[in-house]
TrEMBL record:
<protein>
    <submittedName>
        <fullName>Glucokinase</fullName>
        <ecNumber>2.7.1.2</ecNumber>
    </submittedName>
</protein>
<dbReference type="GO" id="GO:0005829">
    <property type="term" value="C:cytosol"/>
</dbReference>
<dbReference type="InterPro" id="IPR043129">
    <property type="entry name" value="ATPase_NBD"/>
</dbReference>
<dbReference type="InterPro" id="IPR003836">
    <property type="entry name" value="Glucokinase"/>
</dbReference>
<dbReference type="InterPro" id="IPR050201">
    <property type="entry name" value="Bacterial_glucokinase"/>
</dbReference>
<dbReference type="GO" id="GO:0004340">
    <property type="term" value="F:glucokinase activity"/>
</dbReference>
<keyword id="KW-0547">Nucleotide-binding</keyword>
<keyword id="KW-0808">Transferase</keyword>
<comment type="similarity">
    <text>Belongs to the bacterial glucokinase family.</text>
</comment>
<dbReference type="GO" id="GO:0005536">
    <property type="term" value="F:D-glucose binding"/>
</dbReference>
<dbReference type="GO" id="GO:0006096">
    <property type="term" value="P:glycolytic process"/>
</dbReference>
<dbReference type="Pfam" id="PF02685">
    <property type="entry name" value="Glucokinase"/>
</dbReference>
<dbReference type="GO" id="GO:0005524">
    <property type="term" value="F:ATP binding"/>
</dbReference>
<keyword id="KW-0418">Kinase</keyword>
<keyword id="KW-0067">ATP-binding</keyword>
Length: 323
């Protein structure tokens, strides 16, 4: 396919739709795009209709969705409305296909070079040989995928790290976990802390433990207060978020034998200064005898905001090419 088509990145909070087309080298060019707040629209079909306006329906729509694709349905606890691929085809779009959002990110290889990423583990070089890449992204939830490269071929595998049980790394984090379980939580997954809503959850828990009324409700407000230095619990919540993210990266790198890690998503970009302050990298390698191995793994923050739509488009073209 050489003609332009529509690619979309659908998260739990925001949706990004773009006209894209492939370049001769296989990379994706983003021609034009719009952003939408998911909760402000009744359905994905309504968002697509608004994006298209009076233009004719595209030949194809590639979707990266925060969830698991099951036939023509998408199973997700983050997206605010059901997604039905058959319904989108009924709107006049001939080809509609969807993939997990982090599988899409794993296909966005053009967004993983030094120009589009920030090194979060100073002094750690990228391995010369291809290997296994772990991709993680705290957003409305905590998404993840693996990109395994062998003999010049890449295999992408989805994973759901947000449901892995949260493991505290110090007494203060243990107190936060105890607070949540005291509120009746039978299972506390990593995503309850390491995500956009998780950052606000951490702040509220710290305020409750310290006997204070929370002043902020959203993660954006918590980050702003932390950056301004006007709220001690906000600063602690952001630092705790970064430390926990480091622990999760280290745990999953060991489980998957990853040789490099890429972090994506809006939340890490908002706290990039805090991620560079040291707790993230320290907690990532604090794994007893595995420390020397983890110290050789570079972690890079993907900063290209188009990574989702580029990844969805790249996955779609590869899917069509393979039949």
């Amino acid at each position: 396919m050489s003609a332009p088509f529509v690619s979309a990145d659908i998260g739990g909070t925001n949706a990004r739709l773009a006209w894209v087309r492939p370049r001769p080298d296989g990379s994706i060019e983003v021609i034009g795009q719009r952003h939408y707040l998911c909760a402000a629209h009744s359905s994905l079909r309504a968002i697509v209709a608004d994006f298209m306006g009076d233009a004719a329906a595209p030949d194809a729509l590639a979707l990266a969705v925060a969830g698991i694709v099951d036939g023509d349905a998408v199973v997700s606890r983050n997206v605010p409305w059901p997604i039905d691929l058959a319904d989108l085809r009924a709107s006049g779009i001939a080809q509609v296909a969807a993939v997990n959002d982090f599988v899409a990110v794993a296909h966005a290889w053009q967004c993983m070079d030094d120009a589009d990423t920030l090194l979060l583990t100073p002094g750690v070089a990228m391995p010369a040989e291809p290997g296994t890449s772990l991709l993680l992204g705290p957003g409305t939830g905590l998404g993840g995928a693996l990109r395994v490269t062998r003999s010049g071929r890449a295999l992408v595998l989805p994973c759901e790290p947000q449901q892995v049980s949260l493991a505290p790394g110090n007494l203060r984090e243990l107190a936060v976990l105890a607070h949540w379980m005291g509120e009746g939580a039978g299972h506390v997954g990593v995503g309850h802390a390491v995500s956009g809503p998780g950052l606000a959850n951490l702040y509220r828990a710290l305020c409750a433990i310290d006997g204070l009324a929370p002043r902020w409700t959203s993660s954006d407000e918590v980050v702003a207060a932390a950056d301004a230095g006007t709220d001690a619990q906000a600063g602690e919540a952001v630092a705790m978020f970064c430390g926990m993210l480091g622990s999760v990266v280290g745990d999953l790198a060991m489980v998957t034998s990853a040789t490099r890690v890429f972090v994506a998503g809006g939340v890490p970009s908002k706290v990039r200064r805090w991620l560079l302050d040291g707790a993230f990298a320290q907690r990532m390698v604090d794994k007893d005898v595995m420390r020397p191995m983890l110290e050789r793994i570079p972690v890079r923050l993907i900063e290209n905001p188009d990574v989702g739509v580029i990844g969805a488009a790249s996955w779609f073209l590869q899917r069509n090419a393979s039949g």
